[in-house]
Amino acid sequence: MLPAREKGESDSDQKQPIKQDAGKGVAQGIGHELEHERGKVFTAKSGRLRLLVPLDGSRLAEAVLPSAAALAQRYQGEILLLHILEQHPPAQVHGERHLRDVADARVYLEEVAARLRAQDLMVTVHVHENREQSVARGIVEHVQELQSDLVVMCTHGNGGVRDLLFGSIAQQVLQRGPCPIWLVQPRKDGSAPPFKLRRILVPLDGTPEHEPGLPAAIALARTFGAELRLVFVIPTLTTLAGEQAVSGTMLPATMRAVLDLAEQGARSYLKQVAEECQSQGVKAQGEVLRGETVLEVVKLLERQELDLVVLASHGRTGLDALLSGSVAPRLVGRVSVPLLLVRATNL
Fold first, then answer.
1. Of 179, 206, 224, which marks where a domain is finished?
2. Region Disordered: what ranges (predicted)?
3. Neighbours of 299 (CB within 10 A)
4. 219 and 321 belong to one structural domain
5. What's the domain range around 98?
6. Cα gap 173→5, rounded to integer Å
7. Residues with Cβ < 8 Å from 168, sequence gap 6 or more?
8. What 3-state class would DSSP assign to 236?
9. Quick one: DSSP state of residue 274?
10. Which of 122, 152, 179 is the last residue of a domain?
C-alpha cells in the first residue's frame, strides 16, 4: 500500500510512487474484472454461505457475534462455531478461564449456539479434539474441511512482544487460508460493538494485486445499501522511506514534482474506479490524501463515520510485516471499526 520501498525489499513488495498515468491501464480494464470477481465474493461453496467463527471461551472473542449474526441473517448463511484444543493451553485467556478439554468446549459452544439460534440463525458447533500446536493452522484446516466462505475473528492476540514478533492469528490465517477474514475490534471494556454498515472505506494504491478488496466492498455495499469511500495515499517528502527518502533529501524539488504528478494520477485513477462502482449500482467517491498510509487512514476514520475497512493484504506477520510496511497488520489494534481482509493476488 505504501508507494515507498524499504531497503532489502523486492520490487513486488513495495511500489515506486505512481507516475501521472499510473493505474490507467488497471482502471480501464477494471470494469469487467470487478463484475467477474464480485460474483465470487460471499458466494457459498456448499449452497449456503458458511461463516467460521473461532472462539476461545473469552468474552473478548465473543465480540465477533453481532457481526457474524448480521452477516448470516442478510446472506441467509450458517454460522460454524469452532474451538481448537491447544497442546499447551494457558490456564486463563484474557483473565478468564480457558477451555482446556473437549467437554468444557462443547458445553460452552452450545451455550453460544443457543443464543444465536434464538435469533432464528442456523448454527453448528465443532470442537477439534486433536490438540494443535498452531491454532492458525488448525483454523485453516477447518476452513477447507468445513467449506467455509468467511472467517469471522476477534483482533485480540497474545499481546506484548510475542504478538509483535510472531503476528496475530488472523494474519497467519489470511496468509495460509483461501477465504477472506472479517476482523472485529472489541470495545475498550471488552464488549461487542454493534453491527452497522453504511459507509465502507477502501484504501487503494493503483496496483492490480491490491484490488481484490474492491469486489468484496462492492458486494457488501450492494447487499447492505452502503456507500464506498475510496482513498489513495501519496507520501510527502517527510514520509518517504528507504531509497526514496534519500532521493527526496538530495533532490527535494525533483521528488516534490514526482509526488505531485503521482497525486494527479491517483485522482484520475480513483475517478475511474468510482465511476465503475457507480455503474454497478453502488455510490462511491474517491479522495487522495498526502502522508503516511496507516496514519492517514487512522485520521480519516477518526474524522468520518465509517463502519468497515476493506483491504487486500499479503498476510505478512511479525517483523516481516513491520519491515515490508504492510498496512493491514499495522492497522489492527489502531482502528475501532471492523476490517475485512482479502488476500492480495500475488499470494
1. 179
2. 1-28
3. 13
4. yes
5. 50-179
6. 26
7. 155, 157, 317, 329, 332
8. coil
9. H
10. 179
